[in-house]
Write a structure and sequence with these properties.
With 261 residues, this protein is α/β, with parallel strands linked by helices. The protein contains six helices and seven strands, in the order βαββαβαββαβαα.
Length: 261
């Protein structure tokens, strides 16, 4: 019988939390049709987009678990909505915990997620998006290593659309999530400016990309299904790759991966 996944409670911090543990918190919504990855419809249906989101979560969780094996780190699904905890069964790895999101605006949710993970006893916290299934395992391992080193700093994984896929810290810095123009190409720029104002050292991770529209879906297919697949540094994302390959096998490539000239 599968063990019940632990749901962390900020009102009852874990007495058994190991010293020095880094939380790798994946920000995630229950993968329901019409609630996640809606900008991928079209070319996908809403149900297909939700299933692709499941694949993204499986691959992100697997990459985190593999990258942090035998290190002082733990994966956590930072989820919404409350009451749908079972939605992540069979999706996130069994060694992941869950913790509920709080807040309304995105900056609030990131702030509260960071605060709550620290309150649960973690020594450092990374928040990670669920839109980048091929982020290299080395990026996650490097983030944990940097946060275990002495001295205060943040770790930052920029996305090439002007956002970021990972932000990590050793103590709460609420200002990093305040007065940010979310969902614009200025997010990374403004966040790094805020870090400079706070005189925080920044450890940069490789720039990567989010998959949230038709163009970036094509880029993902190029990376996972194209002739150069496996030649780059990105994570192989087997769940995502196999799901996309099924479309190509059953329908041809035109709907999700049209050939370019």
């Amino acid at each position: 019988m599968k063990a019940v996944r632990r749901v962390l409670d900020i009102h009852a911090p874990q007495a058994s939390m190991p010293d020095g543990l880094c939380a790798l918190g994946v920000m995630t919504k229950a993968p329901r049709a019409g609630k996640v990855k809606t900008r991928l419809s079209p070319p996908l249906t809403l149900s297909e987009a939700a299933e692709l989101n499941v694949c993204f979560l499986r691959d992100t969780g697997a990459a985190i678990s593999a990258a942090t094996k035998d290190t002082a780190a733990r994966g956590v699904g930072v989820y919404t909505p409350v009451g749908e905890e079972a939605a992540w069964t069979g999706i996130l790895p069994d060694d992941f915990d869950l913790i509920a999101q709080r807040g309304h605006e995105f900056g609030e949710r990131l702030t509260f997620a960071t605060e709550d993970l620290f309150r649960c006893g973690f020594a450092s916290v990374c928040l990670i998006d669920s839109d980048s299934p091929t982020v290299p395992q080395l990026a996650y391992a490097s983030a944990v290593t940097a946060l275990h080193e002495s001295g205060n700093r943040i770790v930052f994984g920029p996305s090439d659309d002007g956002g970021y896929y990972l932000i990590g810290m050793k103590e709460i810095h609420r200002e990093l999530f305040q007065a940010i123009e979310w969902s614009t190409d200025r997010v990374a720029e403004q966040t790094l400016a805020r870090a400079a104002e706070l005189k925080l050292k920044v450890r940069m991770l490789p720039t990567w990309y989010d998959v949230d529209d038709r163009t970036t879906l094509q880029r993902l297919c190029d990376e996972l299904l194209g002739p150069s697949r496996g030649d780059g540094e990105g994570y192989a994302a087997p769940s995502t790759r196999d799901y996309l390959a099924t479309f190509v096998k059953n329908e041809g490539r035109d709907r999700i991966w049209p050939a370019t000239t």
